[in-house]
Design brief:
The complex is a heterodimer. Chain A is an all-alpha fold. Chain A has two domains: about 55 residues; about 220 residues, Orthogonal Bundle (MetI-like fold), CATH 1.10.3720.10. Chain A contains eleven helices and no strands. By secondary structure, chain B is an alpha/beta fold. Chain B has a seven-stranded mixed β-sheet, sandwiched between helices. In chain B, strands 3-2-5-6 form a four-stranded antiparallel β-sheet, with helices on one face. In chain B, a hairpin with a 2-residue loop joins β5 and β6. Chain B is built from ten helices and eleven strands. In chain B, α5 crosses α6, α6 packs parallel to α7 and α8 runs antiparallel to α10. The chains are: A mainly alpha, B alpha/beta. At the A-B interface, α8 and α9 of A face β7 and α4 of B.
Chain lengths: ~290, ~280
């Protein structure tokens, strides 16, 4: 006769059943992830195929709306043979340089102005009306002013990108400073912080989430500023490429340039996200979207 | 019965002695609300805390309990009357003061050790030395394993421990506490009260502890100030002569403690009722 301890037996059973359940749950997560990626790819393929077939059978007029193969040929010829205004890489480089300069100057200016006005009630009350007025001017129109004043070179595009970026970043930095926790500021004060230390160690870090959120949006705005500036008058850049293609009724060229710009924006967006995760690593992990 | 009268001695209000750690003498504080009305926060308020004494302030909601603390920090100036800290008139934020807030006032972007080292760093201590002292204080509140954690990774009780270390590292002669444990659950609160009494008895600081919880006040304090419903003024002062060291988990079953709490509650109850009926009328 052997004595079997029922408790131990049950315990072992329970452990194996937990392991099995965990393995099942992991498999389910993997399957779902694969499903999401698969559906995303399927949508892209169907969309491109319908566009291509539509163009082939003339449901969609490729003269106006181009076709995926036409766009691809255009990009390929730009890459291998260069564009009418020189190598493609140079156009991308020029536009990126204008965008970056405008983005950096506009963002730094916006952050500085937001913090100064956020920390000083009187300045904020006095200037708020002028900022509202300036913000309500359609800023793209300023592009013409800048081209008249600063010429066809880089300066006019950078200036337009700066004004596109400045107000977005300013508004967020200002709000972020205003939302800084009162108790946290009082705590720093009592612990012995000077007003300057409060600004650098409490106000700026707590406004950082707001500022970073605005950087995502405003990089897109900087790109719009640079491209529109080139569109209005330039010697080089992606905007000029679009404008030339438009003048020649070359739909393939317009779409191709658009796709190159989109890829540029996505790459920079990715870099900004990495930067953001590095800067605000103290934040609790957000609920992350699957597959991104 | 004799014990009870000895344990809870009602004191007559008097002008504060000149050597008190905190002396608030006949202070009235009014302020103008953003919509242009005059509000009286506290009136004819007199209070003194001797060096090394633990004073608690209890009163109904909205009676100006926290205002008394802000007078001592210098963040608020009295309309009439005067406030002295360690014998000197209050002109700004004194280096001798430490403050523990009700809300979480830790810096969420700083790790535990950087939070605790904040005070010395703000006051110009070299970084290496500040971190050494911070490590020491973190160990004292029992969080040595959590130095590199960020506040969001800690429980409410642990965050309060960090806040205590952050305050005590400056070795404040005066410790002001604004309902510091009110957001904690019962067991954590009891543990934190013990922790506080231990740190206080080592540091010999003078404490003003604001709370709406009468039992917490009686358990911790040498002296309890009961405030009237707003605008607040001192209704009565009790000296609590329960022996120290006190153990929070046990003291609430001590018959002396229960007697004292009853006596003071009789005093406080009508103010609480008054405060509540006013709040219902004004809709706040």
């Amino acid at each position: 006769m052997t004595a079997i301890s029922p408790a131990a037996d049950k315990g072992a059973q329970r452990e194996t059943s937990i392991a099995v359940a965990e393995a099942r749950a992991r498999a389910r997560l993997r399957r779902r992830y694969a499903l999401v990626i698969g559906l995303r790819l399927a949508i892209l393929v169907v969309f491109l195929a319908l566009w291509e077939l539509g163009a082939d059978y003339n449901f969609i007029d490729p003269f106006f709306f181009s076709s995926p193969s036409g766009i691809w040929e255009q990009i390929w010829s730009w890459v291998t043979e260069g564009t009418s205004q020189g190598p493609l890489w140079l156009q991308i480089y020029v536009t990126l340089e204008e965008t970056f300069l405008g983005f950096v100057i506009g963002a730094l200016g916006g952050i500085a102005a937001g913090i100064i006005l956020g920390r000083n009630r009187l300045l904020a009350d006095v200037f708020s009306i002028y900022i509202k007025i300036a913000n309500s001017v359609p800023r793209v129109v300023l592009g013409s002013v800048f081209i008249i004043a600063l010429g066809l070179g880089m300066a006019s595009k950078v200036a337009l990108a700066v004004v596109m970026v400045f107000f977005v970043v300013f508004a967020n930095a200002f709000q972020g400073v205003r939302e800084a926790d009162r108790a946290m500021i009082a705590n720093a004060q009592i612990l012995g912080a000077s007003p300057w230390q409060i600004t650098t160690t409490v106000i700026i870090p707590s406004a950082m989430s707001w500022i970073l959120a605005s950087l995502h949006v405003s990089f897109g705005f900087a790109l719009v500023g640079a491209v529109v500036g080139e569109f209005l008058g330039a010697k080089q850049g992606m905007g000029l490429l679009i404008s030339t293609a438009q003048g020649a009724f070359n739909a393939n060229g317009v779409f191709a340039a658009m796709i190159i710009l989109a890829v540029m924006a996505l790459v920079v967006e990715f870099i900004i996200t990495r930067f953001e995760n590095y800067v605000v690593k103290w934040r609790p992990a957000p609920f992350s979207e699957q597959g991104t | 019965m004799q014990l009870q009268t000895m344990a809870a001695q009602k004191l007559s209000p008097a002008a504060p002695p000149t050597d008190a750690a905190i002396a608030i003498d006949d202070v009235t504080l009014r302020f103008v609300t953003p919509d242009g009305h005059m509000m009286t926060a506290i009136r004819d308020f007199t209070m003194s805390v001797a060096r090394g004494e633990f004073a608690c302030v209890v009163g109904p909601t909205g009676c100006g309990k926290s205002t008394t603390l802000n007078l001592a920090t210098g963040l608020l100036r009295p309309t009439t009357g005067n406030v002295r800290v360690m014998g000197n008139p209050v002109t700004g934020i004194s280096r001798d003061i430490g403050f523990v807030f009700q809300a979480d006032a830790l810096f969420p972007w700083r790790s535990v050790i950087d939070n605790v080292a904040a005070g010395p760093l703000y006051r110009g201590t070299p970084r290496a030395e500040a971190l050494d002292r911070a490590r020491d204080w973190i160990a004292r509140v029992g969080l040595a394993r959590f130095e590199k954690h960020y506040p969001h990774q800690l429980s409410g009780g642990m965050r309060k421990r960090v806040a205590l270390a952050q305050t005590f590292i400056n070795q404040p002669k005066i410790l002001l506490m604004d309902e510091p444990f009110s957001a904690l659950d019962m067991q954590t609160r009891t543990a934190m009260q013990d922790e506080l009494l231990e740190l206080w008895s080592e540091q010999k600081s003078s404490v003003v502890f604001v709370t709406h919880d009468l039992e917490e006040a009686v358990a911790l304090a040498d002296k309890v100030y009961v405030l009237t419903a707003g605008p607040g003024t001192v209704k009565s002062v009790y000296r609590i002569d329960l022996p120290r060291p006190r153990v929070m988990a046990d003291i609430r079953y001590d018959p002396n403690f229960i007697e004292i709490a009853k006596v003071i509650w009789n005093d406080l109850r009508e103010e609480v009722q008054l405060g509540q009926s006013r709040a219902m009328q004004t809709g706040h």
